[in-house]
Design brief:
The complex is a heterodimer of chains A (725) and B (230).
Chain A (H helix, E strand, L loop, with lengths): L1 H24 L7 E3 L3 E8 L10 E9 L5 E7 L6 E5 L4 E3 L8 E5 L2 E6 L2 E10 L14 E13 L3 E13 L8 H9 L3 E2 L5 E5 L2 E6 L11 E5 L16 E5 L2 E7 L10 E8 L11 E9 L10 E2 L1 H8 L10 H18 L6 H13 L4 H31 L13 H19 L4 H4 L2 H9 L1 H16 L7 H9 L3 H24 L1 H5 L7 H8 L1 H41 L3 H22 L1 H4 L13 E3 L2 H9 L4 E6 L4 H8 L5 H9 L3 E6 L5 H9 L7 E5 L6 E3 L5 H9 L2
Parallel strand pairs in A: 12-19, 13-19, 20-25, 21-23, 22-23
Antiparallel strand pairs in A: 1-2, 2-3, 3-9, 4-8, 5-10, 6-9, 7-8, 10-11, 13-14, 14-17, 15-18, 16-17, 18-19, 22-24, 24-25
Helix pairs in contact in A: 3-4, 3-11, 4-11, 4-12, 5-10, 6-10, 6-12, 7-15, 9-10, 11-12, 15-16
Chain B lengths: L1 H35 L4 E3 L15 E6 L4 E3 L8 E5 L5 H8 L2 H11 L3 E6 L11 H10 L6 E4 L4 H6 L3 E2 L1 E5 L5 E5 L11 H4 L3 H10 L14 E2 L5
Parallel strand pairs in B: 4-5, 5-6
Antiparallel strand pairs in B: 1-2, 2-3, 2-6, 4-8, 7-10, 8-9
The chains are: A alpha+beta (725), B alpha+beta (230).
Chain lengths: 725, 230
């Protein structure tokens, strides 16, 4: 038994001996030194206590440059590239990051770089795992093979990219300390970390840098400033000429100009402050490092958007106006507007108006001409209102107002007036009063004797209510309209209105559709009373909207005033002296109440973001940047209380447990931008995405273009977009 | 009312255009003389700061490698790409040798984009190329720019804040700078990296032609420092 084992072992040993020479020759032995016409680069190590767990082990690339040539720091500055080191170490050893020595600013014409001339050592700490055991030596003493692939860009005025492969064998037990002086010098050239983080405030085109807690050795001295983040400051700016620095006790402050074509907007900037060459003392730190959080808003760079295919069609046309436009592009936008208008009919907020119309058609069911004129009048009402809204928007645009679609419901006064209007309509439908008692005879006659005017008015109402809910295409078409000449923009609005009115128009002209409607009869009174409820439901919704805008006091005040309004209207239906007395009393009461609490309606409430739950955070461009910096994708829900589509999506798709789990699984941060009240920042963000109304849903991974989803949010689309992350 | 404001702005624009045309005409003579003497000219641009993305791109006049004169404002209404180049730079050779830059140029000019390669290397530099030599080098690389402009005194380069070769700027039909930065997303001299890098120029032009804002409008330019005349 034992013998067989031994013989097998010896056979194995023999076999091993046979292959050993081959093993020793593969891979070819690289040397620790690479020499090029511009540098001599050497892989060196420092392990005074051997390579053992807990012992200090350093490796590094030492570059000796030819005169005038240089390689680069971790932030290379205006051009150049930092030196890259890729290590191959035995299992149990791990190389850290380069401990970059303090660089030198190397001006080249009106540009500047950060780098190293003469000789520099880029040291890298090696951590040894607690269970590290060097592989038993097959021949000779035990050794640890360290391999390095390095690439560096070496420049004078011209630049040469170079690379090299290096190899070094360290004894596991013995001491490696031949380059102690080099490593000591490289570590002495490290910036010393500061206890306090410092602050950086962005102000227009400068950074206001403040670094606290600098030691006495530095105080009062003129320091050099090296940001570790590239692409932020104007690298070539000269201290004392282009920027200034000052001392307040142990705090160093500076105002540093930003690069005009800045491409980085960090939330934290590690900065290195170094003493001038003349002030440096051996044995004392020559530089200090602070990681300063950045406050303030980076000057905007163009916002980005990527559009879902559904919107692409309408957006195709949305190229710069001065581009030679294909003739079809405006037609495409018009088609988009028409479709958008048609889809508006399916929006929940059009429903109350739809109810009015159904009643209207039922009123003259067999009257073809009546239908036709009704359809035409309604269409005219819708289109005129759209044109008026469009014209108002254009006028506001001309006035430089940052406004988007749906703005008419962002004003609490408008909401309150609409609530009053719908209350009146509801009370009228419920039969509490007839319009004849309320309004002057002439107008009342117009209402009754001119159904056309009535239809026109309901067309107007349809638009006022429907507009805040932009359907797919509408947002894109409007975004398009905003950049168009006035005439074309108005045409787009007209077509949008036409799309909204089209179903009624068709119903008016095609008898078959009209015949689907039941005959007039006693049921109409019932229907009329039933239809009061959608009106009151609309009032309830408007009160809620106002509550979002002006808070509970505003909503309460509105409800109180609506009750007063109902009472006043009722008092007018009375007869004789009672009418005069009661109406006067009620009017006085209403006026008193309006004076007392009416102000609450227009008083803006504190934004109630916390109310939307812990899962959703309040949106801000800065928050998005922060989350992106942390590597998290972000989903933004641009919403408003008065937008029914938004509420529907919020309650349906965005509350779906499966979907929320998907968000969590991908670490997506959920942000909500509430546009219930006017907010220029949100308006700007929506416009940047090529839209002008809510809802807008955007999914954006860090460093990627945002994906804009459709307005009627489907779970499958969203899941597909998440899968793309 | 919109009709009023639009007509007012129309007449204002007409007046502005007329003024611009006049001053253009008066400047042309001066410019033609200066450019003929081999220097580039900036027109009505502030002498100090480079434009940021979203700002107006400075107008200039320059002579191309074939002796033809070009002015940026001649291309109003078109997208214009400015590409700083210098065949002596390894990063430029990376993108030409691999065929990446010529392909990017062809894709752009096929869309009707004007592509101007600009060499701002000073005459005294070791790798300065005479116009004819630069022209023939471009030919050997199968490059397809609209023109290769000589900017030996660095006027255009300084006006745009061009730092590296390559360094790319894109100007929209209205004359606004919409992109400034690198050719792609992986700063290295290794041609192998082109495959995995995002070509920012293709991306920006694609977005612009799709009517979308440029998502990466300011990126890091990488390459050799431009050897400006000091």
């Amino acid at each position: 038994m034992l013998r067989t084992l031994l013989s097998r072992l010896s056979v194995a040993a023999l076999a091993l001996a046979a292959v050993l020479p081959a093993v020793a020759q593969l891979p070819p032995k690289a040397s620790p030194v690479v020499t090029t016409p511009h540098v001599r680069a050497e892989l060196i190590a420092h392990a005074p206590d051997g390579v053992a767990p807990g012992a200090p082990v350093w490796v590094g690339l030492q570059i000796t440059h030819q005169p005038e040539w240089h390689t680069y720091w971790k932030n290379a500055g205006d051009s150049g590239l930092p030196t890259e080191l890729t290590w191959t170490l035995p299992a149990g050893l791990a190389a850290g990051d380069i401990a970059w020595p303090v660089p030198k600013k190397i001006p080249i014409g009106n540009l500047a770089n950060y780098g190293y001339e003469h000789t520099v050592l880029l040291p890298v700490p090696v951590t040894v795992a607690p269970d590290f055991k060097p592989a038993p030596a097959l021949v000779g003493a035990g050794g640890i093979d360290i391999r390095l692939k390095a690439s560096w860009l070496v420049c004078r005025k011209e630049c040469i990219p170079e690379d090299g492969e290096f190899a070094l064998t360290l004894p596991a037990q013995g001491s490696t300390a031949l380059h102690k002086a080099d490593f000591d010098a490289a570590l002495a050239a490290q910036p010393a970390p500061l206890a306090q983080p410092g602050t950086i405030a962005v102000a227009d085109q400068v950074l206001n840098v403040r670094v606290d807690g600098l030691p006495p050795a530095a105080r009062g001295k003129t320091l050099e400033f090296f940001p570790e983040t590239a692409e932020v400051i104007r690298t070539a700016a000269v201290s004392g000429k282009d920027w200034t620095q000052a001392w307040q006790g142990d705090s160093w402050t500076a105002t540093i100009p930003l690069a005009e074509q800045r491409s980085a907007s960090p939330t934290t900037m590690p900065v290195v402050l170094a003493l001038a060459e003349a002030d440096r003392r051996d044995g004392a730190p020559i530089a200090w490092r602070a990681e300063a959080p950045v406050s303030g808003t980076w000057p905007a760079t163009a916002a980005a958007a990527q559009v879902s295919p559904a919107l692409q069609a309408a957006l195709e046309a949305n190229t710069a106006v001065s581009l030679p436009q294909p003739a079809g592009s405006f037609a495409m936008a018009l088609l988009g507007a028409l479709l958008g208008g048609l889809l508006l009919n399916l929006m929940p907020c059009v429903f109350p108006v739809l109810a009015i119309k159904v009643l209207g058609f039922a009123n003259h069911a067999s009257d073809r001409r009546g239908h036709r004129s009704a359809g035409l009048a309604y269409t005219a009402g819708v289109m005129v209102t759209f044109l008026a809204l469009g014209a108002a928007m254009l006028a506001l645009r001309a006035a430089g107002e940052q406004l988007g679609w749906g703005f008419q419901l962002q004003s609490p006064v408008v909401v309150a007036v609409l609530a009053a209007l719908f209350t009146l309509i509801g009370l009228n439908l419920a039969g509490m009063f007839e319009f004849g008692f309320l309004v002057p005879r002439s107008l009342c006659a117009a209402q009754v004797k001119h159904p056309v005017a009535n239809d026109f008015l309901s067309g107007v109402l349809a638009v006022v209510i429907a507009s805040p809910c932009t359907a797919p295409f509408m947002g894109a078409s409007l975004g398009f309209a905003i950049g168009l000449p006035a005439a074309q923009a108005l045409m787009l609005f007209a077509v949008l209105g036409f799309g909204l009115a089209l179903p009624y128009l068709v119903a008016g002209f095609v008898p078959a559709v009209a015949h689907l409607l039941p005959r007039p009869g006693a049921w109409m009174d019932t229907l009329r009373r039933v239809l009061a409820f959608p009106m009151f439901a609309t009032v309830a919704w408007l009160v809620w909207v106002l509550g979002q805008q002006s808070g509970i006091d505003g909503a309460g005040a509105l409800l109180g005033l609506l009750v007063c309004l109902a009472a006043v209207v009722w008092s007018f239906t009375l007869r004789g002296r009672t009418r005069i007395v009661l109406a006067s009393a009620l009017l006085a009461g209403t006026a008193a109440l309006a004076l007392a609490i009416g102000g609450n309606i227009v008083r803006p409430a504190e934004p109630a973001v916390a109310a939307s739950g812990a899962r959703w955070q309040s949106w801000s461009a800065a928050r998005v940047a922060e989350l992106h910096a942390a590597g998290r994708p972000v989903f933004v829900d641009f919403t408003a209380a008065w937008c029914v589509t938004c509420q529907y999506n919020k309650k349906a798709t965005l509350s779906d447990a499966d979907l929320l789990a998907d968000f969590d699984a991908r670490q997506v941060a959920l942000l909500r931008a509430d546009w219930t009240r006017q907010d220029p920042a949100i308006t700007a963000a929506i416009n940047a995405l090529g839209r002008s109304g809510v809802p807008v849903y955007v999914l954006q991974a860090p460093g990627k273009a945002p994906v804009v989803l459709t307005e009627i949010l489907s779970k499958s689309d969203l899941k597909a977009a998440l899968a793309q992350l | 009312m919109p009709s009023l404001s639009s007509s007012a702005s129309r007449s204002a624009r007409a007046a502005r255009d007329a003024g611009a045309a006049l001053s253009r005409a008066s400047r042309r003579a001066v410019m033609a003389a200066a450019v003929a003497l081999g220097s580039t000219l900036l027109i009505g641009a502030p002498a100090h700061a480079a434009p940021a993305v979203g700002q107006k791109a400075p107008d200039f006049v320059a002579m191309d490698t074939r002796g033809k004169q070009h002015q940026l404002s001649d291309f109003a209404g078109k997208y214009v790409v400015l590409e700083w180049t210098n065949p002596g730079c390894p990063f430029v050779r990376k993108h030409y040798g691999s065929g990446n830059m010529p392909a990017t140029q062809k894709a752009a000019t096929a869309k009707g984009v004007v592509w101007l390669a600009i060499n701002s290397t000073e005459r005294a530099a070791s790798d300065y190329l005479q116009p004819a030599a630069l022209d023939s080098w471009m030919k050997t690389q199968s490059a397809a720019p609209t023109a290769v402009l000589m900017d030996e005194d660095g006027t255009i380069g300084q006006a745009y804040g061009a730092r590296t070769t390559p360094h790319i700027f894109i100007i929209d039909p209205k004359g606004t700078l919409v992109y400034a930065g690198g050719i792609d997303s992986i700063p290295s001299a290794r041609p192998d990296d082109i495959k995995t890098a995002t070509n920012y120029v293709n991306q920006a032009l694609g977005e612009a032609f799709g009517g979308r804002p440029v998502s990466a409008a300011a990126t890091r330019p990488y390459g050799c420092s431009i050897k400006y005349k000091s």
